[in-house]
Write a structure and sequence with these properties.
Elements: H1 3-23, H2 26-46, H3 48-51, H4 57-67, H5 74-82, H6 84-90, H7 93-119, H8 127-137, H9 140-160, H10 164-172, H11 174-179, H12 183-199, H13 203-221
Amino acid sequence: MDDIAAHILSQLSTVDVERRARGADPMLENRVEALKLYQQQRFARTYADLLASERYRHAARFFLEELYGPGDFSRRDAQFARVVPSVVRLFPRDVVTTVAQLAELHALSERLDSRMGKLHGDASWDRLSYIRAWQACGMAAERQRQIDLTLSIGAALEGYTRKPLLRHALRMMRGPATAAGMLELQQFLETGFDTFREMHGAAEFLRTVREREEALAQALFGQPPADSCPVGDDPLGKLP
């Protein structure tokens, strides 16, 4: 099997393991689902200006719904796992690399969410409990990797907009992708491509996301464990 196909399948297996473990523990599952919803609210607050921007709102919404949202991607993942060899065979290599990054990001996010859910006592999340869970989790390198993967996927999608032949190839893939059971993956890629093309340049958008995410990570891991709810203009004080 192609190495990249094996990598994608390994990441999807990790996602399945995390999902099954939470499914066997309803309390943990509830805590993680509530965490995902809180994180979506956190993103919406952090990027309220981009979500309101005529130029950037669609890209911000794409990040919010496809990369940060609490949505149930189990059907997409199951569909995806069945057709990974077809993905590697049919899609352009650049696109396959992005798909591999997406799978790794998904697996890493699921691991982090499960870890935080185990460290939190109930299904309600607020600013202080979110900070405490991250600090107890103590996975600063993994959080940085999560940021890097998110930005790499965004940069790849932006790069595709400068390759009109690639957009044409994606469009031509609709029929084969649908026949092979890859419709949701096809829609993700096309939506991402079109969303980033609308921006007419994503450098500022991606730089803003990196600056804000890394500032939050540094605030989370660069100080002693929180014993009170932070306020003010620092990144922690701006959490929901």
